Amino acid sequence: VLMHDFTIGRMTDDPQNRLVSQVPFAQLRDMPLVIRNPVDGNFIKTDQTIAAVEQALEHAWQKPEPISVALDCKEDTAEAVAMLLMRRPDLRQGAAIKLYAKYYTGGFDQFLSNLYKHYQINPLHSDDAPRRAALDRLLAKINVVPVFSQGMLADPQVRDFFPGKDDGPEGLAETAVQWLESWKRMRPVMVEAVATDQQSNAGKAMELTRTRLRQPDSAYAQAAFSAGYRYEDFSLPRANHDKDYYVWRNFGEMQKLTSEAFGIQRTTAGAFRNAGESLLTD
């Protein structure tokens, strides 16, 4: 199961707001989902329950209208989803795995290493070469949406794994491009690489990154550029008719974003409509 939060209090009415990891799935799947009104904090119970990823995809593919699903994976959950999609080729076509630089600072190699550990594949031994090749063939069929945010250019691990020539826009762009291109051994169908502050060196680097990924020889030449848009965010009116903007964090708490221009843009319906070829929404 994939959950947006690390706790279950915002999606269920669990009074203890327990960690997802503390609740067995057998118990979790029987809990009714709730809709939370951010204005008064009240919960409205629904008759819907939490489904496993496999069940959710099966349900989506039964719908008469075409639908695509981006599976928003955090902290080493992408491997489990990839294993599901390798096992169920019928679920692959309309599904893609979102892969964040925040959780995979080592890029594709980190992801692959985790799979090697799970399958007990030796990355160097010649006897395991056929198993490595078989895994490579399966991974090449899985759609992915790599996500590299501007803030990751300040991450020392990312810079160590994917070094650039300097800390200027060109060098920072080299880091971003290397991380994104590490996923070309899978099937990038979309990419999210957005500049949040276009006047900074990092913002200029993100613009350079997008330009380079659009080159004909790039692994992303046929990929759609996405403008990420968090639809669960909300605003509250002030007495003077202005608005305060908020985002839900991963433990169900509210964070005010009023002074953050890009944060406000992300919470505003339609603000990214023309910012990319594709729009991902929660």
Automatic annotation (TrEMBL):
BP-aspect Gene Ontology terms: ethanolamine metabolic process; N-acylethanolamine metabolic process; phospholipid metabolic process
Domain of life from the UniProt record: Bacteria
PROSITE patterns reported in the protein's UniProt record: GP_PDE (PS51704)
Gene Ontology molecular function: glycerophosphodiester phosphodiesterase activity
Ranges for domain GP-PDE: 1-206
One GO CC annotation: plasma membrane
Name of the protein in its database record: Type III secretion system effector protein
Organism, as annotated: Xanthomonas fragariae
